[in-house]
């Protein structure tokens, strides 16, 4: 089951990487590259910094779960977050932006619960609190929104875009 999960996530990651050029409608190539690097690094570090050292959630020590989590937070979450930033840059209504935001948060919670259920992640605590994950994911969105605007300002000021 763990190997199957890894290969499914590998295919999904490959597909999501192929969608990055479609983001050129909202971002320049340098923005896409830098935002992907930032979101990938930030999502992985936030998970390992805030989740792994505590009893709340840890990655099972086998190879497939380790690489599954790396792909999930390093590619799937990161590219999904880039698409969420594209929604924020688009001219859609506030209601659709909120729907996209809560969909991304819900997706993260469902995937984490699924990983707990199939054995990719392990929890040594008595219970699992999705409200804590919601807080982390909202924090990720806010920091990424700030970085997206900050990066745009720097690139514009330096006349890169």
Q: Describe the biggest sheet?
A: 2 strands, antiparallel
How many extended strands? 2
Number of domains: 1
Secondary-structure element string: HHEHHEH
Oligomer: single chain
Global geometry: globular
> So how many helices?
5
Q: Which residues form runs of ≥5 with pLDDT under 50? A: none
Give the fraction of residues assigned to helices.
Answer: over 70%
The proportion of strand residues reads under 5%
**Rg value:** 16 Å
Instruction: Provide the residue-averaged pLDDT.
Output: 89
Distance between the termini: 46 Å
Strand order of the largest sheet: 1-2
Specify the structural class. mainly alpha
What is the strand and helix layout of this fold?
Blueprint: H1 2-18, H2 29-50, E1 58-59, H3 63-89, H4 94-118, E2 121-122, H5 130-157
Describe this structure in words.
- The chain has helices spanning 2-18, 29-50, 63-89, 94-118, 130-157, and strands at residues 58-59, 121-122.
- The protein has 161 residues and is mostly helical.
- It has one domain.
- It has a two-stranded antiparallel sheet with strand order 1-2.
- Helix 2 (29-50) crosses helix 3 (63-89).
- The N and C termini lie far apart (46 Å).
């Amino acid at each position: 089951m763990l190997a199957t999960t890894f290969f499914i996530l590998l295919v999904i990651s490959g597909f999501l990487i192929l969608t990055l050029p479609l983001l050129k409608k909202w971002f320049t190539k340098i923005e896409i590259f830098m935002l992907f690097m930032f979101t990938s690094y930030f999502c992985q570090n936030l998970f390992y910094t805030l989740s792994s050292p505590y009893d709340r959630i840890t990655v099972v020590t086998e190879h497939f779960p380790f690489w599954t989590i790396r792909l999930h937070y390093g590619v799937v979450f990161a590219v999904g977050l880039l698409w969420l930033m594209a929604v924020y840059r688009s001219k859609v209504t506030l209601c659709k932006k909120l729907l996209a935001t809560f969909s991304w948060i819900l997706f993260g919670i469902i995937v984490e619960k699924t990983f707990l259920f199939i054995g990719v992640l392990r929890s040594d605590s008595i219970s699992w609190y999705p409200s804590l994950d919601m807080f982390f994911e909202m924090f990720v969105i806010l920091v990424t929104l700030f970085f997206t605007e900050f990066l745009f300002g720097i690139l514009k000021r330096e006349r890169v875009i």
